[in-house]
Write a structure and sequence with these properties.
Mean pLDDT: 88
Number of strands: 20
Number of helices: 1
Strand order of the largest sheet: 9-10-11-12-13
Structural class: mainly beta
Distance between the termini: 29 Å
Radius of gyration: 18 Å
Low-confidence stretches: none
Largest sheet: 5 strands, antiparallel
Strand content: 35-45%
Helix content: under 10%
Shape: globular
Length: about 260
């Protein structure tokens, strides 16, 4: 739905009898991964006029993917067992999680402790992945050095990113979605309606219960679940200067990222 016009796009049967598990909305294309383990894309023009059957298969894999983002020429996917895959749009090369060429953006699952990735985003040139048990890991896409959920470096002698967490920030529940607000705050949403945030300026987390405020000068975004009556948050998006999120019980909430709490 276009928020400004209030017009809804007609139904498009993208993949018959398949579940779409991850998607990314790019400038000209909609990329999506389905339960048949294939990455598809369809042009915005075809999608908006409800043309079915015009999706292009970019690659076929062997694992489930639950999160997707884009960095420069790479579509990056994450999913089962913490594995990360990537696809170069220009060269049309797919990089599997165990690829050793150092040309793609990949990870075998060790950085996430082999826990499922449920959400990912870019913070500058840093890829941040997160998911089960609240674990967060990250990768400097320039050096390809990963920082594990417990702050250890992979593929390097020292960590190149300080964005990581062992699950304590959100109390060990699953993280389901996230928002990168102005490359300054990373806000994560999870089960039981909890929210926590990472303040890039100080490289610190604010826990879901407000403990350990990451931004000493404010604001700090957090919630124990009271905004959704402890219903799990599944999706979030930036609308204007607010962050809007939806939960299992049908609640739609908004968060002002310029104020604490």
């Amino acid at each position: 739905c276009d928020i400004e016009t209030g017009l809804w796009t007609n139904d498009v049967n993208l993949v018959v009898d398949k579940t779409i598990t991850a998607c990314y909305d790019d400038e000209d294309y909609l990329y999506y991964y389905a339960s048949d383990y294939k990455l598809y894309r369809i042009s915005k023009e075809a999608f908006m006029v409800s043309v079915s059957g015009n999706s292009e298969v970019l690659f076929e894999s062997t694992g489930s993917m639950y999160a997707m983002t884009k960095y420069e020429d790479f579509i990056i996917l994450g999913g089962h067992n913490g594995r990360v895959y990537s696809y170069n749009i220009k060269t049309k090369v797919f990089y599997k999680y165990d690829d050793e060429s150092n040309e793609g953006i990949v990870e075998s699952g060790f950085a996430m402790g082999n826990k499922n990735i449920r959400a990912m985003t870019m913070v500058g040139n840093v890829l941040v992945v997160m998911g089960n048990e609240g674990k967060v890991a990250s990768c400097n896409t320039l050096t390809k050095v990963w920082t594990t959920f417990n702050g250890l470096p992979l593929n390097g002698d020292a960590i190149d990113s300080k964005i990581f967490n062992n699950g304590s920030a959100i109390g060990g529940v699953n993280i389901n979605c996230c928002i990168n607000y102005l490359n300054n705050q990373l806000i994560v949403f999870g089960d039981n309606g909890r929210m926590a945030s990472f303040y890039v300026g100080n490289s610190c987390w604010t826990n879901y219960d407000g403990v350990n405020p990451g931004n000493l000068n404010g604001p700090n975004i957090y919630n124990i679940g009271s905004m959704t009556d402890n219903s799990s948050v599944r999706c979030a998006i930036i609308v204007g200067d607010k962050i809007v999120a939806g939960s299992d019980n049908g609640y739609l909430i908004s968060v002002d990222p310029t104020t604490s709490g």
